């Protein structure tokens, strides 16, 4: 892999992630411009319109991965990048919630740019440095996701919704064009796609037979569910901690603290994974995530919450790059895109299940209960992951000992 490809994809991921998240802060306000609706109607449709993109993406992501393995990942990057741009452009012309709903659904269909970029860079990276490289690439995505909502809110207040959509369209289209001109996809010399064709059923069986790989997939769902469980309630929780008038700003700061921690640590964890083993780093990050999540239920000030959210982000930062690097090391390269697509599907599903579960728990008990339940979920995942991890290590140790004894017998004879 060339440094040029990594640099181009880092920049493209930054702008695509930033532009795609620019519209999230004002979705509910945008719906209010369509008519005189009751508050509960706006809130309900805001949640539906937000979640439908991830629900559709959950279904479609493996297909983009499969198409990328078969036809080339650069082609999929261009198709999905321009598709996202067009969907956002059309949002500036809608006048009903149904039109916006359908466009957000279409956006879910073409939401394959970032996972495909991970697959492209992963396929062109040596296994020995996959964690470092993918951690670096993840920094671009996280950075864009951090600045996007802030910039979107500023633009919406300054120039209005229509021009914000137009600017977002232009930025994503330019970022995609940057990929078209700057990325050179190199097919690894050891891959013969025609010779090693596998059906979707065979790929699923491959994942089911590898227990650690399956755990990595489930892990993506669990971690994303836990992370997103508190997001819809965060502003309300901040309101309970402070009497300040700028609750929205403080809630945004608490939200961004997790992203900042993620940004600060993701490359570090990727490098540690290359040296120590990515499955081991995933286990460490899981334990640290649970340890940083539980104390958030007991904070008495906004600054305590911000610090703990930052620490949670530091722990969370190693899971995505190490999971991707583990797939790079474990899965045959000719189907890596499809497997990464399944992994991304589980993450998208977590984006839906997290807010729903968090809202139900907070409504039935209390907001603090969301922290308890998510901590229990992360802890259980860590225990199960540890059992599978130890079983795998013991199996490898036994196999290595068996091979050693066979060689020794041959040598003695």
UniProtKB/TrEMBL annotation:
Pfam families: MFS_1, Sugar_tr
Keyword flag Protease: no
Segments passing through the bilayer: 7-31, 43-64, 76-95, 101-121, 133-155, 161-183, 203-227, 247-269, 281-299, 305-327, 348-365, 371-389
Keywords: Cell membrane, Membrane, Transmembrane, Transmembrane helix, Transport
Residues in Major facilitator superfamily (MFS) profile domain copies: 5-393
Membrane topology: Multi-pass membrane protein
InterPro entries registered for this protein in UniProt: MFS, MFS_dom, MFS_sugar_transport-like, MFS_trans_sf, Tet-R_TetA/multi-R_MdtG-like
Key word Transmembrane present: yes
SUPFAM superfamilies linked to this entry: MFS general substrate transporter
Localization: Cell membrane
A cellular-component GO term for this protein: plasma membrane
Gene Ontology molecular-function annotations: transmembrane transporter activity
Main location: membrane
Full protein name: Predicted arabinose efflux permease, MFS family
Lineage: Bacteria, Bacillati, Bacillota, Bacilli, Bacillales
């Amino acid at each position: 892999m060339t440094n040029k490809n990594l640099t181009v994809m880092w920049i493209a991921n930054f702008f695509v992630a930033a532009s795609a998240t620019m519209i999230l802060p004002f979705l509910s306000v945008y719906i209010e411009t369509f008519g005189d609706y009751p508050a509960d109607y706006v809130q309900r449709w805001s949640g539906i319109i937000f979640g439908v993109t991830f629900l559709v993406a959950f279904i479609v992501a493996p297909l983009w991965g499969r198409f990328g393995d078969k036809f080339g990942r650069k082609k999929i990057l261009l198709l999905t990048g321009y598709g996202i741009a067009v969907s956002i452009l059309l949002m500036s012309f809608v006048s009903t919630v149904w039109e916006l709903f359908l466009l957000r659904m279409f956006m879910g269909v073409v939401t394959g740019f970032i996972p495909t970029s991970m697959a492209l860079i992963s396929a062109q990276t040596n296994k020995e440095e996959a964690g470092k490289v993918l951690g670096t690439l993840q920094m671009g995505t996280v950075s864009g996701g951090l600045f996007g909502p802030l910039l979107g809110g500023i633009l919406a207040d300054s120039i209005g919704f229509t021009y914000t959509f137009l600017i977002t369209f232009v930025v994503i289209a330019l970022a995609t064009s940057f990929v078209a001109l700057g990325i050179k996809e190199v097919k690894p010399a050891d891959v013969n796609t025609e010779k090693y064709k596998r059906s979707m059923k065979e790929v699923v069986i491959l994942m089911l037979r590898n227990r650690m790989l399956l755990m990595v997939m489930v892990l993506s769902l669990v971690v994303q569910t836990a992370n997103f469980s508190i997001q819809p309630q965060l502003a309300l929780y901040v309101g309970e901690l402070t009497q300040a008038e700028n609750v929205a700003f403080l809630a945004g700061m608490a939200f961004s603290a997790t992203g900042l921690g993620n940004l600060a640590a993701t490359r570090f964890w990727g490098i540690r994974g290359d040296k120590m083993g990515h499955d081991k780093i995933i286990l460490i990050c899981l334990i640290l995530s649970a340890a940083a999540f539980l104390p958030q239920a007991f904070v008495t000030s906004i600054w305590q919450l911000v610090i703990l959210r930052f620490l949670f982000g530091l722990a969370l930062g190693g899971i995505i790059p190490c999971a991707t690097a583990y797939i790079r090391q474990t899965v045959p390269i000719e189907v890596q895109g499809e497997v990464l697509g399944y992994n991304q599907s589980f993450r998208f599903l977590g984006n839906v299940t997290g807010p729903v579960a968090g809202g139900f728990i907070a409504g039935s008990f209390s907001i603090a209960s969301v922290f308890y339940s998510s901590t229990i979920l992360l802890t259980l995942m860590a225990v199960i992951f540890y059992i599978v991890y130890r079983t795998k290590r013991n199996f490898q140790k036994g196999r290595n000992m068996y091979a050693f004894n066979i060689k020794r017998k041959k040598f003695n004879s």
